[in-house]
Amino acid sequence: MPQMPPDRTPLARIVNPDSVAVIGASDDLGKFGGRVIHYLIRHGYRGRLLPINPNRAVIRGLPAFPGIAAAPGPVDVAILAVPAGTLLREVEACAAAGVGACIVITGKLADAGPEGAALEARVAAAARAAGMRLVGPNCLGILNLADGAMLSSSLALEVERVRAGGIGMVSQSGALMGTLVSLGHRHGAGFSRCVSVGNQADLELCDVLEFLIEDAATRVITLYVEGLKDPARFAPLLRRARAAGKPVLCVKAGRSEAGAQAARSHTASLAGSHAAFAALCREAGAVLLDDPAVMVLAADALDRLPRLPRAGMGCAVIASSGGSTVTTTDMLAQHGLRLGAMGEATRAELRRWMPESHVHLPLDTGSFHDGTSEDGLGACIRAFMRDDDIGAVVVPMTTQPAMAARAALLPPLAREGGRPLLYVMMAGEVGDAARERLREAGFPFYDSVAHALGVLQALEAEAEGRGRAALPPPARPAGLALPEALPRGALTEEEAKRLVAAYGIPVTRERFAATEAEAVAAAEAIGFPVVLKGVSRAVVHKSDLGLVRLGLRDAEALRAAHAALLAAPVPLEGVLVQEMARGEAELILGARHEPGLGPFVLVGTGGIWVEVLRDVQLAPAPLRPEDARAMLRRLALWPVLQGVRGRPALDVEAAVEALVRLSWLAADLGPRLVELDLNPILLRAAGEGCIAVDARATLA
């Protein structure tokens, strides 16, 4: 009987095994098993290699074995490239032989329907019972470039040599992982460990992320995420990576919010799972991107270029082509970037090389007194690198003489200046010599301005995350406590307002009335004009059914409105008589608990157009005041809050205070909070506060 290891095999041993068995090994490169053993040999695997094939005595010059039981142990990792029908038998044989882990390339399991899912569950159970780990199934394995262990069938390994470097990768798509490694290879990027986790029947994305955080060979981490098995682990791991100085870049598949149409509140439809995932990444310091190619190029920049000193800095665009500088500058705003504001010392240096009339950004070196020169180009870039407002330099290069020589100037300038310098080779194949010079120098390059600016946008987000990490944790305002008896289910407006008022959020004065006489008495006590609203737990948006009547100036108007509400096509529990509040702008504040990810708060342009305009920002709760201000600044409504066209500046600090307090309510309620809307909150002129005039909530 083989001796089982006392503990399950650690990931470090799976990634860098001393012995590998390839079940389904073949000489045929058209088969998965053939490519796996071919790539292991081609890329210099140094451990024991054991081909398993009952029909062959020798494969690739190595003795082959009829089954894993016949192979000399111990075996750290078995790679299975077998039909689904034989998979369970082979996994059970590996378990019996004491194999530490199986990498299962075999697909068509849980990814192919109920029958495949049932088979996958049996495979996972067999491995778990024996203490054996699984990678996959439906994966393309592991590329360990740091140690030369290519445990994969990916065609990215067709190149002569894949460069080792500091980029670690976890991907739920094997084919995409190989594509991104190949793309990075073309640009000279280097990888440490790349793991395709497939269906995550055992080892999952967070397990590998945790490994990469501790891995000395990995300096930057990239993730392709389709779904998280254990979402609660994700954000703490992102924060650990940030604390370790390892940027995490992520692409998340699946942006559609299925089921949003059935949501009970604005917040639920606007703050779906993808929006919550994006907000969580931002708060934890990870960079969420749309384009996997930009993710790898940005990771390469973070691995091989200096980092941005801080967020919010401008950039300098410099080239010998006016057309390339102008078009590049035109694209900055699309990526949330801006030109730097040059200081006087920078301007003085530029005057040495060009007329005063041309001393501006973007900079066309064709305006130099003696034409573009290497000395002038270097002097200007050095001046940009010293400027307090310039965080990065972008150099788009068009077809011109001496492209390779010009490109070779840049790597030492970037290292000397200590700021990122992004070189764009805009030409096609005639620029290949310049690209090769940069590859030889270990320096990144980009083939399009869009890719370069996407990378710079990611570097800006990484710097923003570093800055946020330096802030103190959120401080709880004094006197916050949940009411002792909380209602459950859909709350009335009155109940929801009572809940938020307990956390110090201003709400309108109002009274519930069961009869017309009670409504008149309530209005007289509050003071006309008033608002009359129908109360029904079954109605989400009262205005859609005509259940809100505004500006009622006397008892007669109130009685008429009351009669109209009673004629509405829904049964009412009564009416709410409310003061007629006024403000200068309408906000929505919302909160919800996202299963697995925790509590979130939302702020945006409020009122009846909230789901049409969709001008909202989302963040995990609780918040610091700085976080709340940053959310407001990201709104399209922000200029209105600042005061425009003669309108007063509004009480932003009151909105910040309300949002912070709501965030603590969301945090305190935890999973009990399904959703909560304050829409609208009326924001008044600076110093005059804000007030919630409508509220809706559902508690579990």
Automatic annotation (TrEMBL):
Kindly list the residue ranges recorded as spanning the membrane: none
Q: Which residues form the ATP-grasp domain?
A: 497-533
Residue ranges of coiled coil: none
Top-level taxonomic group: Bacteria
Gene Ontology terms, MF aspect: ligase activity
- Is Repressor set as a keyword in this record? no
What is the protein name stated in its UniProt record?
Acetate--CoA ligase family protein
